[in-house]
Design brief:
- The model has no long low-confidence stretch (mean pLDDT 87).
- The protein has one domain.
- The protein is mostly helical.
- The protein has 12 helices and no strands.
Length: 303
Amino acid sequence: MVPGTVVDRPREPLPWDFCVRLPALEGARRYRLEALKSAFLALLQGLTEFLPISSSAHLILPSQLLGWDDQGLAFDVAVHLGTLLAVLTYFRRDMARMLIAVLAWRPSDQQTHPDARLAVWLVVATLPLVVAGFVFFDDVETHLRSMRVIGWATLLFAVLLAVGDQSRGARSVVDIRLADALVIGLAQAMAIIPGTSRSGITMTAALLLGLGREAAARFSFLLSIPAILGASALGLAALLGKSEAVDWPQLGIGVAVAGASAYTCIHFFLKLVERTGMMPYVVYRLVLGAALVIITFSPALSG
């Protein structure tokens, strides 16, 4: 070293340096918490979209009990996209068969292929929900989206699900007729009431019409495709009309977690429903609905 040369040494940290880093540390911590929150809500959406237990009843709890803010329209679209991708992936062969059968159909055909007929029944069963959504959506959002309504609806439709399970028959999806599709579609229209559960009410109607458990669940899941597609399209259209910032990593978490959980849920539900029946979901709904109703009568819990 040349004499007189000044050597740069790292200075000792000063007491106030930590204060300078606090905002950055707090920001990173807050972002991680938001990511965990997004993953949890996406998991809830993915599971409850297809289980007959009402997604509304579950998604209202974090906001009411934990004070969580709404994740926003973009996140809502993301989790719906995730569940849509899950059900399309799971039923891709069914969808391909229906598409091929519809394209191959000719007016001169003596009989309609069962896959083409199923595609028509899905369209027929979707129409009541479309009409109900356009006519009653604003009123429902204004007057019925409360914990008390969700609680009572969760209880009521739990009882109906139990009745449907006891009334089930052995009919398959191939045995569905026009009248069945209309009845299931009218039942699905009731799902605009928060706490009803779209999957729960359609399975209930199918069981009451004499379908078996697996057949009722399969038709309900197939029927979810146009319903979720419509909800996603409406949400995306509303999102495009806004100029809010988009947190793409959070949306990616929503799509991935909702999609993975929804696919897993569909797979195991169809495999196990004949053995487990609907009673575990009935009991769960009764407990959940009672808890929600009790919370509404407790100012300390309901806020």
